[in-house]
Amino acid sequence: MQRLWVTGYRSYELNTFGDKDPKIKVIKYVLKNYFINLLENGQLDWIITGANLGVEQWASEVAVQLRKTYPVRVSIMTPYEEFANRWNENNQLKFLNLKKAVDFFASTSNNPYQSPVQLRNYQNFMLLHTDRAMMIYDEEHPGKPKFDYHAIKSYQKENKYPLDLIDFYDLQDAAEEYQDTQQSDRFSE
Description:
It contains six helices and six strands.
């Protein structure tokens, strides 16, 4: 069984505004192509991610859509109970809908947030229950994902654990490719 941990930037770190932001379309395009490549090569059974607004939720949305065509399962894990309680109503609703749509949902702690230990326990859980990771992350622009990145790099010192990074240069290339596919789709209509 091949289990992939997907994480990356929060939506605010990417300066995305609303669900229709063109940057989100590009990121979902990247995620979809990445997942399809693994799926078509028999290298992916589970997509496991967190619930943070941004890359993690977009990855879950893409993965849920891919289940219509591919035999992939989707899991959302949170580091503590009541994870989205402080979010605005719209974001809480999106979170609840995603929770319902995935194959498995759980928290690594049965308590609401108490300390950073819960976040480290979550990282350890993800590392021990996945076979590889994919991050939309650029070392030149650390942000919140730096904690997951450093946990993965530390884990790699003693374990075989592949990490695929999609950085801002990759996203720029993908944006150009995505734009080309959109234009060619318009011409073929």
